[in-house]
Description:
This protein is mainly α and about 140 residues long. It has two domains: about 10-60, no CATH class; about 85-140, no CATH class. Helix content is about 45%, strand content about 0%. The protein is built from five helices and no strands. It has helices spanning about 10-15, 30-35, 85-95, 100-110, 120-140. The two termini are about 30 Å apart.
Amino acid sequence: MLHVSFRGGGPAVTDLMGGQIAMYFGNSADLLPHAANNAIRIIGVSTPKRMRQLPAVPAVNEILPGFEMTAWQGFLAPALTPKTIVDLLAREIQRIAQEPAIIDKLSSVGVDAISTSPAQFVDMIRNEQAVYAEAVKATGLKTN
């Protein structure tokens, strides 16, 4: 395979649908609408298990055990934000993430609405940093 850099999912999906590229590894929000109208075919998902939205599509983990690459979004605040403000934001985000309309909207683009505590989120980021640091090291890439 030849890696082709794109400036975002939109241009990549456009080229995928137009036949300029043979495959694309992207996120569900960019891909699900086009799979629903049969403009593209999703052949695997990078989540640990099959997606609820695509029960017939295997997880790559079923073929390559241990493979997982999950996209996530999070809310961040400046480092010196007072704890009371961080806690208030966390409570409100958790409340909003439990609203049925939000859950339905996110689910329609392949996103599971979950929320964590600020401490759990920091731990998750640190764990991912370690995983990607190991991947960079394994490739032999030099970092600054």
